[in-house]
Amino acid sequence: MKLNNIEHVFFDLDHTLWDFDRNSALAFKEVFEKQKIELDIEKFLEVYIPINFKYWELYRNDSVTKEALRYGRLKESFDTLKFETQDTTINLIADDYIEYLPNNNHLLEGSIEILDKLKQDYKLHIITNGFEEVQHKKMRNSSILDYFETVTTSEEAGVKKPHPLIFEKAIAKSGANKSNSVMIGDNLEADIIGAHQFGLHVIYLDYNGQSVQNQYPQIQKLKELLNYL
């Protein structure tokens, strides 16, 4: 079912266009080699990914700081694996990871194709909870920055999705209206429910195929956006 009168398309970045899981794994591989961390990367990621998800939820709710997120997700992962390391090493790993993460630039399947297609008819934008200094590097290094008219980060807005003020900031910055805008993202609470409650059209990207049941338009592949746009 096509959405009518859409002129502005707002994307989340991580897990929506930018292949966070793949790029993150590559960054950790580099960091562990540099810091001589003798852990199986697959076993580490199996523990780290849900812990990282938990810390991002805490960060979205202002329950932890950016610094506490960067340290805590690593410390808790190492503790769970009973891998002993010093706080100084954890902080070095945290810093290296942020430095190396944007150097990997894999995108989710169909990202460039769908951006090429949508750019012909719509104004494209990014709304992201990611860190200001990292997100622009990710987009530049993966050659997608020029597709977007505006990029709104949570650090710039002073609040994180799903807070309505970040959507308000993005709408004002873009010159869009709620009625002619759609938000596309992978996080049901932050991207979809938050944007919908603000008054935007929404499309939920179930990028890892979990088939989450919800009331919103839902896709599993980016190319399916053409069913709506």
UniProtKB/TrEMBL annotation:
PANTHER family: PTHR47478, PYRIMIDINE 5'-NUCLEOTIDASE YJJG (PTHR47478:SF1)
Protein name per the record: YjjG family noncanonical pyrimidine nucleotidase
Naturally occurring in which organism (per UniProt): Christiangramia sediminicola
